[in-house]
Design a protein that fits this description.
binds adenosine-5'-triphosphate; about 40% helix; Alpha-Beta Plaits; binds magnesium ion; alpha+beta
């Protein structure tokens, strides 16, 4: 079974959406392998989003992710990376389909409630970054 990394961003935590979001993943059939509420350091945020470091919004993105607690999760399920991103919806909530997490709960590109890994390789890297190792229990 594949694993993916999902992070409820500071806006989602602040707005009290943790429970609602967990329910959606569990209903879909994902198993929660690990989860924690945590503050992200600047260094971890920069490593997490290293592929975007040349983008003009990189500084704003790092500031946002470090602005308050996030809720990090390792989720396990069939085709975990792709299925989690299907539930999450398009990057820009303005065009995300209703019924997806971003489509239902967000309107702003910068504060779009949730992150999900975009490849198996990045899932493994992000799980290692946030949880120190890949969980297997
Ligand atoms: P995430 O990695 O957070 O799950 P994503 O994979 O859908 O999102 P990425 O291209 O990885 O999209 O962008 C990471 C985050 O950077 C987005 O979730 C969004 O909040 C922010 N972002 C992306 N494009 C822009 C932009 N043009 N202006 C401001 N912020 C942006
Ligand atoms: Mg991404």
């Amino acid at each position: 079974m594949e694993q993916t990394f999902v992070m409820i961003k500071p806006d989602g935590v602040e707005r009290g959406l943790i429970g609602e979001i967990i329910v959606r993943f569990q209903r879909k059939g994902f198993r929660i392998v690990d989860a924690k509420l945590m503050k992200v350091s600047k260094e971890t945020a920069e490593r997490h989003y290293f592929e975007l470091k040349e983008k003009p919004f990189f500084g704003e993105l790092v500031n946002f992710i470090t602005s308050g607690p996030i809720f990090a999760m390792v989720l396990e399920g069939r085709n975990a990376v792709q299925n989690a991103r299907l539930l999450i919806g398009a990057t820009n909530p303005a065009v995300a389909t209703a019924g997806t997490i971003r489509g239902d709960f967000a309107t702003d590109l910068a504060s779009n409630v949730i992150h999900g890994s975009d490849s198996d390789e990045n899932a493994a890297r992000e799980i290692d970054l946030f949880f120190q190792r890949q969980r297997d229990f």
